[in-house]
Amino acid sequence: GNSVTQMEGPVTLSEEAFLTINCTYTATGYPSLFWYVQYPGEGLQLLLKATKADDKGSNKGFEATYRKETTSFHLEKGSVQVSDSAVYFCALSVKGYSTLTFGKGTMLLVSP
Amino acid sequence: NAGVMQNPRHLVRRRGQEARLRCSPMKGHSHVYWYRQLPEEGLKFMVYLQKENIIDESGMPKERFSAEFPKEGPSILRIQQVVRGDSAAYFCASSPNSNNSPLHFGNGTRLTVT
C-alpha cells in the first residue's frame, strides 16, 4: 500500500535558522508528492508539489526535491520566520490529486 | 471568493446520537473530498464525490458513515449512532475537476463524542 513517513515534532527553531523536515514514502506506481501547511485554526493549504523524479517544488522560500532513488521529499527553508510556525504535512497521490495519502504532520515552532 | 466552507466548526454529540457535517465547496468546484484526522494521526481519505455521485468511498467505514453531494446544496457527511472513537477533525476539500487540480481545504469540523 501507500504510506508517508515524516519526522516527528515539534521542531523548535530560532528565527533565521535553517529548516529541514524529512519525508519518505512508499507507493505503488509513480506518485505525485506534496507538502501542505496548516496554520493554527485553519485548513490545509498546498505549499508546493512535484510530479516527477528530480522535480523541485518551491514556494515562499520553501523547497523540496523529488528523489526517486531514496523515495524522499524533504522540505527545506534557508531562513525561517516566526510566521512559519505551523504544522507541515507531506503527502502523495497515485491517482492524480484526489486520494491523497498524508503523513502524520510535523509541528514547527519558530521563536524570535 | 469564499473558500471551502465547513460547518459547524465544533460539534458535540453524546454516544448514540447522529452527527451531520456540512461542506460547501469553492465556487465553481464540483468535486468534494472528505478526510478524517484522528488524534496523533495524519489525515485519512474517506470519500470522493461529484455532484450526485460517489466516485471513491474506499476510506469510508462500512457501517454508520454515509456521504452525499446533492445537485443543490452542500455535501453532507453523516455519522449515525456515534461512538467515542468517532471523535476527530473532519476536513472537506474541493477541486474544479479531477485532472491534476490541487485540493482546497476547509477549516474542518471538530467532532467530540461524550
Order of helices and strands of chain B: EEEEEEEEEEE
Strand content of chain A: over 45%
How many individual helices of chain B?
0
Whole-Å distance between the termini of chain A? 41 Å
Q: Say what oligomer this is.
A: heterodimer
What's the alpha carbon Rg of chain B, rounded to whole Å? Answer: 13 Å
Largest sheet of chain A: 6 strands, mixed
User: Which blocks of ≥5 consecutive residues of chain B have pLDDT under 50?
Assistant: none
Could you name the key traits of this structure?
A: about 110 residues, mainly beta, six-stranded mixed β-sheet, four-stranded antiparallel β-sheet, B: about 110 residues, 11 strands, about 0% helix
What does this protein structure show overall?
The complex is a heterodimer of chains A (112) and B (114). Helix content of chain A is 0%, strand content 50%. Chain A contains no helices and 12 strands. In chain A, the strands form 3 sheets. In chain A, strands 2, 5, 6, 10, 11 and 12 form a 6-stranded mixed β-sheet that branches. In chain A, a hairpin with a 5-residue loop joins β5 (32-38) and β6 (44-50). Chain A is globular. The mean pLDDT of chain A is 92. Chain B has 114 residues and is mostly beta strands. The radius of gyration of chain B is 13 Å and the shape is globular.
Q: Helices, strands, pairings?
A:
The complex is a heterodimer of chains A (112) and B (114).
Chain A: E1 3-6, E2 11-14, E3 19-21, E4 23-26, E5 32-38, E6 44-50, E7 56-59, E8 62-65, E9 75-77, E10 86-93, E11 101-102, E12 106-111
Chain B: E1 5-7, E2 10-13, E3 19-24, E4 31-37, E5 43-50, E6 53-56, E7 65-68, E8 75-79, E9 88-95, E10 104-105, E11 109-113
Parallel strand pairs in B: 2-11
Antiparallel strand pairs in B: 1-3, 3-8, 4-5, 4-9, 5-6, 7-8, 9-10, 9-11
